[in-house]
Amino acid sequence: MVLTIASSAFKQDEVIPTRYTRDGDNVSPPLEWHGAPPETRSFVVLVEDPDAPSGTFRHWAIYNIPATATGLPEDASGRGRSGAGEGVNGFGNARYDGPQPPKGHGPHHYHFRLAALDVPQLEIAASPRAEDVWAKARPHMIAEAEVVGVYER
């Protein structure tokens, strides 16, 4: 079985509703996944925008998600989910901050990336940057999946 991730809030390559952006309620969208390998011990989710003018911009990293999880509910950020931690995003916050591309810059593609890991938790220093969470997870990844949403202002 192949690892997949999806959101009930938007479909692949469709517009992310304003509710999940910094122009709206700035809450994380619901995510669900299926097909995790049997050897999965935890998960990491990273949200990034490769279309940002200054290079890839990270909006969220949540790690040490238990292997028993099959998704994250809407507004999961900051909920202290069973020991899950959150990395510092490009806005300087250790939480989800949704899309907010520059006005008139055109559509941006937001990659909601999921990784199944072979370790129960990542040993990470306090307040890691989102990109450092992903780098720390990379050697432990046994499967990856992503869903992409689009947003422009």
Q: How many strands?
A: 9
Q: From the structure provided, what is the oligomeric state, counting identical versus distinct chains?
A: single chain
User: How many domains, in number, for the residues?
Assistant: 1
CATH class: Alpha Beta
The assigned CATH architecture is Alpha-Beta Complex
Helix share of residues? under 10%
Average the pLDDT over all residues and give the rounded result: 96
Strand fraction equals: 25-35%
Strands in their spatial order, largest beta sheet: 2-9-8-4-5-7
Structural class: mainly beta
Number of separate helices:
1
Secondary-structure element string: EEEEEEEEHE
Protein name: Phosphatidylethanolamine-binding protein
Organism: Microvirga vignae
Pfam family, one: PBP
Task: Give a description of the structure.
This protein has about 150 residues and is mostly beta strands. It has one domain (about 5-150): Phosphatidylethanolamine-binding Protein (Alpha-Beta Complex), CATH 3.90.280.10. Helix content is about 5%, strand content about 35%. The chain has one helix and nine strands, in the order ββββββββαβ. It has one helix at about 130-135; strands at about 5, 15, 30-35, 40-50, 55-65, 70, 85, 110-115, 140-150. Strands 2-9-8-4-5-7 form a six-stranded mixed beta sheet, with helices on one face. Strands 1-3-6 form a three-stranded antiparallel beta sheet, with no helix packed on it. The termini are far apart.
